[in-house]
Amino acid sequence: MKILTSTQIKECANQSIQSEITTSLELMESSALACFEWLKSRYSNEHNYYIFCGKGNNGGDGLALARLLYNENFNVEAFIIQSSADFSEDTQINFDKFPKSVYFIEGDDFEVTEEKAIIIDALFGTGLNKKLKGEAEKIVSKLNEINAIKISIDIPSGLFADSLPEENQIVFRADETLTFEFYKRSFLHLEAAQYAGKIHVLDIGLDKNLIENEKTDNYLIEYSHFEKNYKRRNPFSNKGNFGKAIIIGGSYGKIGSITLSTLSALRVGTGLVFTGAPEYGSLVLQTIAPEAMFFSCGDKYIEDIQIPFENYTIGIGPGLGTEATTKMAFEKMLENENNPMVLDADALNIISENKDLLNLIPKYSIITPHPKEFERLFGKTNSTLEQCELARKKAKEYEIVIVIKGHNTAILLPEGTCYYNATGNAGMAKGGSGDVLTGIITGLLAQGYDSKLATILGVYIHGKAGDYAYEKFSQESMTAQGIIQCLSDVFLELNK
Ligand SMILES: NC(=O)C1=CN([C@@H]2O[C@H](COP(=O)(O)OP(=O)(O)OC[C@H]3O[C@@H](n4cnc5c(N)ncnc54)[C@H](OP(=O)(O)O)[C@@H]3O)[C@@H](O)[C@H]2O)[C@H](O)CC1
Ligand SMILES: [K+]
């Protein structure tokens, strides 16, 4: 899915109107109708709906929704922010059409009975042009204190679509956001995501050809990406058709990480998986992952990386350690390898201590830092949005794929495009999840997916398996091994 800026979204709506595909009033009605259908499918008319509206078109969506709810016998009260601004044209029409009297409110002079309350935030949408202050700030602060189900229309009031809020900025805190046609970019960054809650993208009938023509460098990965690009296995194939993945890493006390990567590479369909680790890891690996083959890279640490065959894809880093001998072996390996590989964890820590190594990374390799590892590699930034933009620059500069792992993992490609992922959950914020991702991406790269697809599909699959693990084990009890177990659910769904 394309991620467009608020200006581009407005442009799409304007063009739809100018080309007479629709009118602005019809668009408002279809936005309200989409919200109404969504609400009706989830909440009964036992709830009391409190709809807070601004005077712009976001408020108009709220007033049209209030009418639709009222007409179907839902309990609705509409509140309108008292301000010097006039209603927008379509909002005025929807204000006039609402059959019940409304409350004009200033600051915190309104009451909400918490029991069975659903608060709908239609104060400000993508037309917000400055931070909230004065009356608007007071209203939103009071709403945030109320214990009720909270739903924002299009975007939580006080949040911008294309930039992130400052630390103490007042923003409506929604449990769910019903957003129109597109994810707003800010939803994909932690600083703003915490206000938006669960995102639901509703189709309001904007012309899909116009959307197609809008240019962007930011996308959201969707199931269709996976479905369209995943190569189904040819029934006449053999293990030689599905590549050789070499997983290198592990050190005393960290044989677990490399085992998790090995198991993950196996579970995404790789033909042959080899694990290179210190000798004492052999027994553990051969017991837990008997399908993989082991080769020794040293007695105590990784001291020498001698890969015993050709045509392979390397994933290196989990549990690798940063011993002096390991650093030397790693550097030598980088000098000798030309094919794209996956670099994670200690492989990145070694590089961050000697930045010249960045130039040795084979083109189109994939690095998978978490935000702290990224900072050690490329420097500090003031927000995750700035970090994402720095990663875009670095991905271009070194011709590598950068995966910034986090709440919404961001993938930056060498050509400058960003793909965000929305699968996954907080149960994955545990040791071992990253090792699983390394194994998945290495396994896909080994099977012949190019770096871009191996990463996009890998990150998506990883999060999706995490979501299945959540359903099966709970966020608390799920582990990295649970994620690996649930990889099969992702493929079973695909092959249904
Ligand atoms: N584009 C689409 O596809 C559709 C969008 N819809 C909905 O419309 C909103 C965007 O509506 P817009 O009228 O452009 O803007 P808003 O309603 O978000 O806000 C404009 C009013 O808010 C005032 N404003 C702005 N910032 C502040 C602030 N910090 N404090 C107080 N007041 C503020 C502004 O007043 P000004 O005097 O500053 O101009 C306006 O009164 C979109 O989000 C969707 O919900 C359509 O309904 C369907 C198609
Ligand atoms: K809103």
Automatic annotation (TrEMBL):
<keyword id="KW-0456">Lyase</keyword>
<feature type="binding site">
    <location>
        <begin position="57"/>
        <end position="61"/>
    </location>
    <ligand>
        <name>(6S)-NADPHX</name>
    </ligand>
</feature>
<dbReference type="InterPro" id="IPR030677">
    <property type="entry name" value="Nnr"/>
</dbReference>
<dbReference type="GO" id="GO:0052855">
    <property type="term" value="F:ADP-dependent NAD(P)H-hydrate dehydratase activity"/>
</dbReference>
<feature type="domain" description="YjeF N-terminal">
    <location>
        <begin position="5"/>
        <end position="212"/>
    </location>
</feature>
<dbReference type="InterPro" id="IPR004443">
    <property type="entry name" value="YjeF_N_dom"/>
</dbReference>
<feature type="binding site">
    <location>
        <begin position="125"/>
        <end position="131"/>
    </location>
    <ligand>
        <name>(6S)-NADPHX</name>
    </ligand>
</feature>
<keyword id="KW-0520">NAD</keyword>
<feature type="binding site">
    <location>
        <position position="319"/>
    </location>
    <ligand>
        <name>(6S)-NADPHX</name>
    </ligand>
</feature>
<dbReference type="GO" id="GO:0052856">
    <property type="term" value="F:NAD(P)HX epimerase activity"/>
</dbReference>
<comment type="similarity">
    <text>Belongs to the NnrD/CARKD family.</text>
</comment>
<keyword id="KW-0521">NADP</keyword>
<keyword id="KW-0511">Multifunctional enzyme</keyword>
<dbReference type="Pfam" id="PF03853">
    <property type="entry name" value="YjeF_N"/>
</dbReference>
<feature type="binding site">
    <location>
        <position position="435"/>
    </location>
    <ligand>
        <name>(6S)-NADPHX</name>
    </ligand>
</feature>
<feature type="binding site">
    <location>
        <position position="58"/>
    </location>
    <ligand>
        <name>K(+)</name>
    </ligand>
</feature>
<feature type="binding site">
    <location>
        <begin position="405"/>
        <end position="409"/>
    </location>
    <ligand>
        <name>AMP</name>
    </ligand>
</feature>
<dbReference type="GO" id="GO:0005524">
    <property type="term" value="F:ATP binding"/>
</dbReference>
<keyword id="KW-0547">Nucleotide-binding</keyword>
<comment type="similarity">
    <text>In the N-terminal section; belongs to the NnrE/AIBP family.</text>
</comment>
<dbReference type="GO" id="GO:0046872">
    <property type="term" value="F:metal ion binding"/>
</dbReference>
<feature type="binding site">
    <location>
        <position position="157"/>
    </location>
    <ligand>
        <name>K(+)</name>
    </ligand>
</feature>
<comment type="subunit">
    <text>Homotetramer.</text>
</comment>
<dbReference type="InterPro" id="IPR029056">
    <property type="entry name" value="Ribokinase-like"/>
</dbReference>
<keyword id="KW-0067">ATP-binding</keyword>
<protein>
    <recommendedName>
        <fullName>Bifunctional NAD(P)H-hydrate repair enzyme</fullName>
        <ecNumber>4.2.1.136</ecNumber>
        <ecNumber>5.1.99.6</ecNumber>
    </recommendedName>
</protein>
<feature type="binding site">
    <location>
        <position position="370"/>
    </location>
    <ligand>
        <name>(6S)-NADPHX</name>
    </ligand>
</feature>
<dbReference type="GO" id="GO:0110051">
    <property type="term" value="P:metabolite repair"/>
</dbReference>
<dbReference type="InterPro" id="IPR036652">
    <property type="entry name" value="YjeF_N_dom_sf"/>
</dbReference>
<comment type="function">
    <text>Bifunctional enzyme that catalyzes the epimerization of the S- and R-forms of NAD(P)HX and the dehydration of the S-form of NAD(P)HX at the expense of ADP, which is converted to AMP. This allows the repair of both epimers of NAD(P)HX, a damaged form of NAD(P)H that is a result of enzymatic or heat-dependent hydration.</text>
</comment>
<feature type="binding site">
    <location>
        <position position="154"/>
    </location>
    <ligand>
        <name>(6S)-NADPHX</name>
    </ligand>
</feature>
<feature type="binding site">
    <location>
        <position position="121"/>
    </location>
    <ligand>
        <name>K(+)</name>
    </ligand>
</feature>
<feature type="binding site">
    <location>
        <position position="434"/>
    </location>
    <ligand>
        <name>AMP</name>
    </ligand>
</feature>
<dbReference type="InterPro" id="IPR017953">
    <property type="entry name" value="Carbohydrate_kinase_pred_CS"/>
</dbReference>
<keyword id="KW-0630">Potassium</keyword>
<dbReference type="InterPro" id="IPR000631">
    <property type="entry name" value="CARKD"/>
</dbReference>
<keyword id="KW-0413">Isomerase</keyword>
<dbReference type="GO" id="GO:0046496">
    <property type="term" value="P:nicotinamide nucleotide metabolic process"/>
</dbReference>
<keyword id="KW-0479">Metal-binding</keyword>
<dbReference type="Pfam" id="PF01256">
    <property type="entry name" value="Carb_kinase"/>
</dbReference>
<feature type="domain" description="YjeF C-terminal">
    <location>
        <begin position="222"/>
        <end position="494"/>
    </location>
</feature>
<comment type="function">
    <text>Catalyzes the dehydration of the S-form of NAD(P)HX at the expense of ADP, which is converted to AMP. Together with NAD(P)HX epimerase, which catalyzes the epimerization of the S- and R-forms, the enzyme allows the repair of both epimers of NAD(P)HX, a damaged form of NAD(P)H that is a result of enzymatic or heat-dependent hydration.</text>
</comment>
